Amino acid sequence: MSDKLIDVVDNAGVVRLTITRPKALNALNSAVIAELDTVLDDLESRNDLRAVLITGDGEKSFVAGADIAEMRGKSPEQARAFAGQALRTLKRLETLPVPVVALVNGFCLGGGCELALACDWAVASDNAIFGQPEVGLGVIPGFGGTQRLPRRVGPAMAIDLVTTGRKIDAAEALRIGLVNRVMPQAELEAYAEELTKQLSGNGPEAVRGAKQAVHDGLDQDLDSALALETALFAFCFAGEEQTEGMSAFVEKRKPNF
Ligand code: CAA
């Protein structure tokens, strides 16, 4: 592993980002957030991007939160700037036009849980631990947890988690819908490979359109959102992917996207 804070590996447009501060359990300090922002400059400009996977280095932790040692001496203005930068970066990650998946390999606390929430979905190792323990440090979540967590798991469970600060295991995270799947840590790698294969076999523009329809539709009333879906569905018929995908089905062969 290099001395970078974000290791980037590209496998045919499926880009895997690994946060590499294992000595601090991959805690998010300003330098990690700035480097993620720079990586996003590149990812946003790529037409060949298929998906982004994000994980933490080592076997113990995905991300154990925002960096407490760095935050400790901050003034309210500095805290606002720190959270503001992280929120902008997580928003950029969330709004990438391709699926963004968190591979949660251990502790997923505070800012780490907020990072996972900014991803489209998360899969976790069975030893992963989740939580928003900020209240135990005398603060509230600052990287979007009070807003994205209720949208993912509902307000009652979100208020439970952000006010008690209790930690939950992977089984409970699965039960409340915080993660999509749980598996032994050794299988996360195989999952990443399988996902890469699956996404690479689909029409890339269709995958982008499907994500866009879900994301943009959630902010609209149902009728407007359904109209958006119709517009995006019709738009698929203007490109080559639809011709290739449907011809391949009729001709009983694999599509070549
Ligand atoms: N920030 C900075 N350093 C951290 C860190 C964090 N969030 N989490 C862990 N570390 C560091 C520890 O200080 C320790 O460093 P040293 O070896 O130099 O002492 C190293 O990582 C290993 O950690 P531990 O020795 O504590 O490991 P452990 O196995 O005993 O405990 C843990 C693991 C339960 C995750 C514990 O480290 C822990 O509770 N970490 C903090 C979790 C937390 O409160 N996160 C929320 C942060 S606030 C936040 O995120 C605000 C926000 O929303 C923006």
Poorly predicted tracts of residues? none
String of helices and strands: EEHEEHHEEHEEHHEHEHHHH
Number of strands: 10
Which shape, going by the Cα principal axes? globular
Q: Sheet with the most strands?
A: 6 strands, mixed
Report the sheet-strand fraction: 15-25%
Report the helical percentage. Answer: 40-55%
Q: How far apart, in Å, are the first and last alpha carbons?
A: 33 Å
**Nearest-angstrom radius of gyration?**
19 Å
Instruction: Give the neighbour order of strands across the main sheet.
Output: 1-2-3-5-7-10
CATH homologous superfamily classification of the largest domain: 2-enoyl-CoA Hydratase, Chain A, domain 1
Question: How many domains, in number, for the residues?
Answer: 2
Regarding CATH, which class of the largest domain?
Alpha Beta
What is the structural class?
Answer: alpha/beta
Mean pLDDT over the residues: 96
What this model shows, in words?
The chain is α/β, with parallel strands linked by helices and 257 residues long. The protein folds into two domains: 6-200, 2-enoyl-CoA Hydratase, Chain A, domain 1; 204-250, Lyase 2-enoyl-coa Hydratase, Chain  A, domain 2. 48% of the residues lie in helices and 16% in strands. It is built from eleven helices and ten strands. The chain has helices at 30-44, 68-71, 76-94, 111-117, 145-153, 155-164, 170-175, 188-200, 204-218, 222-236, 240-250; strands spanning 6-11, 14-19, 51-56, 61-63, 100-104, 107-109, 121-125, 129-131, 168-169, 181-183. The strands form two sheets. Strands 1-2-3-5-7-10 form a six-stranded mixed sheet, with helices on both faces. It has a four-stranded mixed sheet with strand order 4-6-8-9. Helix 5 crosses helix 6 (155-164) and helix 9 (204-218) runs antiparallel to helix 10. The longest helix is centred in the first third of the chain and has 19 residues, at 76-94. It is globular, with a radius of gyration of 19 Å. The site of acetoacetyl-coenzyme A has 21 residues, from helix 2, strand 6 and helix 4. Keywords: Lyase. GO terms for molecular function: hydro-lyase activity. One of its GO terms (biological process) is fatty acid beta-oxidation.
